[in-house]
Write a structure and sequence with these properties.
This protein has a 7-stranded mixed sheet, sandwiched between helices. It has 2 domains: 121 residues, Aspartate Aminotransferase, domain 1; 246 residues, 3-Layer(aba) Sandwich (Aspartate Aminotransferase, domain 2), CATH 3.40.640. With 382 residues, it is of the alpha/beta class. It starts with 26 loop residues before the first helix and ends with a helix. The protein is globular and about 75 Å long.
Length: 382
C-alpha cells in the first residue's frame, strides 16, 4: 500500500500544514490562546477585554493596508461566503457584473442571480485557470470579482473598471485568500472583503470588509429604501451591513464572535506588521510559490496549472500531475507522514494538488515539501 511509505524524518518539513484554508496557525499564536484561557476567552464580547482586541484588529488592518481617508474596517459574523449575501442585499442596487473564473467567484454570481429583487447580472466568465475581469456595462452599479480565486490559484487585477469614474458604480472584491498575501491599492476598491482563515492565520466564522465612503453610503441608501412602503427587498438583520458598520464602530460584532479567532487574527496582524508589513508578507508568499513553481517546471511529472504570467497566484499554488501519478496516492502518502491539506479543489475534479502559501508558511518548509513529493512519487513507481 502506498500510504505505508515512510518518508525519511530528515526530509520532512518542520510544519506539514499547507492548506489553502484553514491555513496553519503559528505556535506563538497558540500560546497567546493558552495564556488567554481565563480572560478574554470565555468572557463577554461586549466588554473592554474583547472590544480592545477588535479595536486592535481594526487599527492593525488600517495600518497594514494604508487605508485612504474615510475607509473603514468592518467585522461581522458568518465568514466571507456570507458577505456574498450581504453584498447582494445591501451593496448591489439593481444590477451587478461579475468576473467568474472559479468555484467561489461562480458562487458569488449565483447569489446575485438568485436574488429576486436584483436584475439578472452580467457574467464575464473565463475557463478555470484564467483570470476574469468584468468590463463596463451601462446600467451596472456594482462590479464583483475575486482578487485571488482560491479554487484554482488564479490572481485577478484589482483596479477600478474603466468607464465607471462618473456613474458611482462600486468595486466589490473578494479577497478571501488574498488579503495580507497579495499587493493591493485599497483605493481601487469599495468593498475588499475576506475571512481570517487564510493569510490572517486564524479560524473561520467571521467576515472582514474594508469599505469606502461610497460603499457605506450605498448600504445606508439601499437599506433605507428597503423600509419604504411597497419595497420588495427584505434585508434580514444578520445581513444588514449598516448594523455591522454601527457595531464595528463600537469595536464589536452584531452577534457573539469566536473570541479565539479574534485573538489569533490580532496576533497575526501584529506579527506581519512587526516583520515589515504587507510588502514583507507579499514577498514571503512569492518566495514560497516561486519554490513550488520552479520545482514543478523542472519536474518530469508535475506542471503548474496556471501558465506563467500575471494570472499565476503568488499565494495559492496549484500543480497538475501526470496521469500515471494519481494525486490521491501522493496525498495519501503525504498525509500518512504528517503533510496535510494539499488536495486540489474538489469541484474541479482534476489530477492536481493545491498548496496554500500564506505568510505563516516558511520557505524552507516548501523546499522540504517538494523533496517529499519527489520521494513519494519515486516510491509509488517502484
Amino acid at each position: 500500500m502506498t500510504n505505508n511509505v515512510t518518508i525519511p524524518q530528515n526530509m520532512l518539513p518542520n510544519d506539514g500544514r499547507f492548506g489553502s484554508g484553514p491555513s496553519r496557525i503559528r505556535e506563538s499564536q497558540a500560546k497567546v490562546l493558552f495564556e488567554s484561557w481565563r480572560s478574554p476567552l470565555g468572557t463577554s464580547h461586549r466588554q473592554d477585554a474583547v472590544k480592545n482586541i477588535v479595536a486592535s484588529i481594526r487599527k492593525g488592518l488600517a495600518d497594514l493596508f494604508q487605508l485612504p481617508d474615510g475607509y473603514e474596517v468592518v467585522l461581522g459574523n458568518g465568514g466571507a461566503s456570507q458577505f456574498f449575501d450581504i453584498a447582494c442585499a445591501c451593496l448591489i442596487e439593481r444590477k451587478a457584473a461579475f468576473g467568474v473564473c472559479g468555484s467561489f467567484s461562480d458562487k458569488f454570481a449565483k447569489e446575485a442571480q438568485a436574488a429576486p429583487f436584483l436584475e439578472e447580472p452580467v457574467i464575464f466568465e473565463k475557463p478555470y485557470g484564467e483570470a476574469a475581469v468584468p468590463e463596463f456595462v451601462d446600467g451596472v452599479d456594482a462590479y464583483c470579482w475575486p482578487h485571488s480565486e482560491t479554487s484554482t490559484g488564479v490572481m485577478v487585477p484589482v483596479q477600478r473598471i474603466p468607464g465607471t469614474e462618473k456613474n458611482g458604480a462600486l468595486m466589490i472584491v473578494d479577497a478571501t485568500s488574498a488579503a495580507g498575501a497579495l499587493p493591493v491599492d485599497i483605493s481601487q476598491t469599495d468593498a475588499y472583503f475576506f475571512s481570517p482563515q487564510k493569510a490572517m492565520g486564524a479560524e473561520g466564522g467571521l467576515w472582514i470588509a474594508i469599505l469606502s465612503p461610497a460603499a457605506i453610503a450605498r448600504a445606508e441608501a439601499v437599506e433605507k429604501s428597503a423600509t419604504l412602503e411597497g419595497a420588495t427587498r427584505w434585508i434580514p438583520s444578520m445581513l444588514s451591513l449598516t448594523k455591522a458598520i454601527k457595531n464595528s464602530r463600537k469595536n464589536q460584532t452584531l452577534n457573539t464572535p469566536a473570541i479565539a479567532t479574534l485573538l489569533l487574527m490580532d496576533e497575526q496582524i501584529k506579527w506581519i506588521l512587526a516583520n515589515g508589513g504587507l510588502d514583507w508578507a507579499v514577498a514571503r508568499c512569492r518566495q514560497c510559490t516561486d519554490i513550488m513553481y520552479d520545482w514543478a517546471e523542472a519536474s518530469d511529472y508535475a506542471t503548474p496549472f496556471v501558465p506563467a504570467g500575471p494570472a499565476r497566484s503568488t499565494c495559492v499554488a496549484t500543480i497538475n500531475l501526470a496521469d500515471d501519478v494519481p494525486a490521491s496516492e501522493v496525498l495519501a502518502i503525504l498525509r500518512a507522514n504528517g503533510i496535510v491539506d494539499c488536495n486540489g479543489y474538489r469541484a474541479l475534479g482534476l489530477n492536481q494538488m493545491r498548496f496554500g502559501m500564506f505568510p505563516s508558511v516558511e520557505p524552507a518548509d516548501v523546499e522540504a515539501l517538494t523533496h517529499c513529493i519527489d520521494y513519494a512519487v519515486s516510491e509509488m513507481k517502484k
